[in-house]
Amino acid sequence: MDQSDIEEETTFGKQFISASDLAEYSYCSTQWYMDKMGYPRDARTNSRMVTGRQMHQELDVRTRNSRSLLRLGSTLLVVSILLMILLALI
After folding, report:
1. Would you say residue 8 lies in a domain?
2. Max Cα separation, the chain?
3. CA 73/CA 75 separation, integer angstroms
4. Is residue 32 part of a domain?
5. N or C: which end of the chain has fewer CB within 10 A?
6. What pTM was estimated for this model as a whole?
């Protein structure tokens, strides 16, 4: 059995998903699907993709901000509870 036989044996009939495929899918599953199915990209599709990217970026910013506010709120809650305990002991 030579190298070409091994390569045919390990890849015949199987589809492999690369790490970049996973990254593209996690970013936008619809875009990944359309690329894999061979849908052509026209000007309208490209403009919608740009709009989609902008929406994803805005959502990311909002998510990061809400996480920061949640952490701040949790910290303030703990500090206020500690202050109430301290005041109750005085």
Report:
1. no
2. 84
3. 5
4. yes
5. C
6. 0.47
